[in-house]
Amino acid sequence: MQSVRNALRVLEEVSVLQPVGVSELARRLDLPKSTVQRALTTLHAAGWLAVHGRGTGGRWALAAKPALVGQRSESNRLRLAAEPIMQALRAETHETIHLMVPEGDEIVLIERIDGSLPVRTFQRLGTRSPIAATGNGKAMLAHLPQARVEALLADGLTRYTAKTITDPEALRAALALIRERGYATNRGEVDPDVSSVAAAIVSTGGLLGSISISVPTHRLDDAAVARLGPVVAAAAAAIEGALELPDIDASPGTAALPTTEPRPMGTPTKETHGPADRH
What we know:
CATH architecture of the largest domain: 2-Layer Sandwich
Shape: globular
Distance between the termini: 42 Å
Strand order of the largest sheet: 5-4-3-8-7-6
CATH class of the largest domain: Alpha Beta
Mean pLDDT: 83
Radius of gyration: 19 Å
Helix content: 40-55%
Structural class: alpha+beta
Strand content: 15-25%
Low-confidence stretches: 250-256, 259-277
Largest sheet: 6 strands, antiparallel
Order of helices and strands: HHHEEHHEEEHHHEEEH
C-alpha cells in the first residue's frame, strides 16, 4: 500500500515540476532515490509518465495517458474545443483531421475525424509518432523552447524514409520556416504514402498540441500545401479562441472556420483504400 502512496505522490509532484529529474523529486518528497526511481519506472511502464533524455540524466513529465482517459481537464477542454472545428475542417477539405498532443520525443493521437474520400489516411487513437519527422510533431517542436529542440538533436534524428530530415541544421531551418508561416508539412517523412499539413495549438500557458490535415502523398503537391496550410493554421487559431470561452466545458456545438484563401482542393478522380499514416 505504501508503494501506491509513493507512486501517487511522485505523479502529483511530476505534474507540478515537469520536466524534473530523479534527484530533485527525491529531495522534494524526502524519499530515497531508489524509491522514487521505482515509482517513476512503474508509472512510465503504465503510460502515465514520459521521460526526456536517456540514462540517469533523464527528466520526467506527464505522458498522454491522462488525456486519453479524460482525467486531465486541460486535455478534455482541448478536445471539446477542437471537435466542432475539426468537423468543420473535414467538411471543408474532405480529408482526415487529427488532434495530437506531445509526449516526450513522440506525439500521441487523442482525436480523429475521418475523411470522406474513398482514399484516405487512417490512424488509431492512442497511436504514437516521432515528434521530429511528422507534420504535427514539427508544428509542436517549433513552439517548444530551443533547449528542448537542441536536446532532441543531440540524441540524433532517426531516418524513416528518403524524405526524413536527419541533418540538425536542416531541421532548425524547417522549424524557423514553420514559425514564420504558421504551419508545418510532412511529405512522406515517416511513411512515403502519407503526408500532412499541421499547425500548433498554443495557449497563454504554453503548447497544448496540434491539429493536422492528413492526406495521401499523391494529393499533397505544392499547390495543395499552399491551399491547405493557411486553412489548418486558421483552424488552430480557432481552437485557441474557443479555449478562451468560459463555457467550453459544455457540450460542443457547431463551428465554422474563419474564411481563408485560397480554398482547399476538390475531390480526386481515382480512389482506393489508403495506408495507415504517420503525420
